Write the structure tokens for this entry.
Amino acid sequence: MAEAVFDMIELHAAHGYLINEFLSSLSNERDDVYGGSRDRRFRFLEELLIEIRKVWKKPLFVRISATEYALKGNRIDDYVYYAKKMKELDVDLIDCSSGSVIRTPIPVYPGYQVPLAEAIRREAGIPTGAVGIITSGLQAEEILQSKRADLIFLARELLRDPYWSRTAACEINAAVKARNNIVGLGMDIQ
């Protein structure tokens, strides 16, 4: 892992994948050291982070489902607790998504997951990334300038507009440098 030619890695602990199944009280029905209380459900992720940090000295992000939208599922206060523990384990940033290991209605609107990133950032004292229908440069800039998150993650919007960075920069009147027909934000691209 240490020889990987990456600047950072992100551990996916959200959206019903394996780590999320351990964290979730909806799916984790174990009665051993990996199930039951919040601390025991966190143990699997904790052990992974300890082992990763033995070989990975660069930035480490963890993606979480910061609320499960289900009556007996994890809520934001559970993930604030987990985020504090991840900060102690030298995680650099929490990527705050949401969702569950079960199907449940999710109230979706522009920026609907930003309050989750904001709460974890404020209450756990760790940098966060915001996701969830962030579609414009103005919206992204407002989130960053108001210190609701430290980073904006995009997916679908980049599929819709592969030049979204340029579009967003123009929208907020940021300087854009172009070289060799490649456009970057304040970067000198070879």
Q: What stands out?
A: The first helix runs from residue 18 to 23. The radius of gyration is 18 Å. Residues 182-190 have pLDDT under 50 and may be disordered. The longest strand covers residues 60-65.
